[in-house]
Specification:
Layout (H helix, E strand, L loop, with lengths): L3 E4 L2 E3 L5 E7 L8 E7 L6 E6 L5 E3 L8 E5 L6 E5 L8 E8 L11 E2 L3 E5 L2
Parallel strand pairs: 2-11
Antiparallel strand pairs: 1-3, 3-8, 4-5, 4-9, 5-6, 7-8, 9-10, 9-11
Length: about 120
C-alpha cells in the first residue's frame, strides 16, 4: 500500500468552492510530480492538472483552467487542488496521482490514491 491519501471532498452548491488535499503516509512526495485526475460516473477518467517538483504547472482541462488551481506546499509533500465556482459537471471522484513527470496520460509508473468524492448539487 503506497499510502496516497486525499481529503477535502464533499457536497457543495453550484458556485461554491472546495480545496482538495493529498499527501502520503508512507513515502516522500518531494521528488515526484503530483497530479489530479477525475472520473465521473459513466465517463472516462480525465486529467485535471499537474505540478512538478519545481512548482511548474500543467493544466489539462479548458473547462476548469480559470477556476481550479493546483499547488504544493513548501516541503513539496502535500498537493492541493483549489476549486472555485464549482459546477454540477465538476461532480466526480478526484484522484491524486504520483508521477515521475507530469503526464495527462497515466503510465504504469504512476501511483494512485483512493480518491475523494466531489458532488456539486443544489
Amino acid at each position: 500500500q503506497l499510502g496516497l491519501v486525499e481529503s477535502g471532498g464533499g457536497v457543495v452548491q453550484p458556485g461554491g468552492f472546495l480545496t482538495l488535499s493529498c499527501t502520503s503516509t508512507t513515502f516522500s512526495l518531494a521528488n515526484y510530480a503530483l497530479a489530479w485526475f477525475r472520473q465521473a460516473p459513466g465517463k472516462d477518467r480525465e486529467a485535471v492538472s499537474c505540478i512538478g517538483t519545481r512548482y511548474q504547472r500543467a493544466n489539462y482541462l479548458d473547462s476548469v483552467k480559470d477556476r481550479f488551481t493546483i499547488a504544493r506546499d513548501g516541503s513539496k509533500e502535500t498537493v492541493y487542488l483549489q476549486m472555485t465556482d464549482l459546477k454540477p459537471e465538476d461532480t466526480a471522484r478526484y484522484f491524486c496521482v504520483r508521477q515521475n513527470f507530469c503526464s495527462a496520460v497515466p503510465t504504469s509508473f504512476d501511483s494512485w490514491g483512493q480518491g475523494t468524492q466531489v458532488t456539486v448539487s443544489s
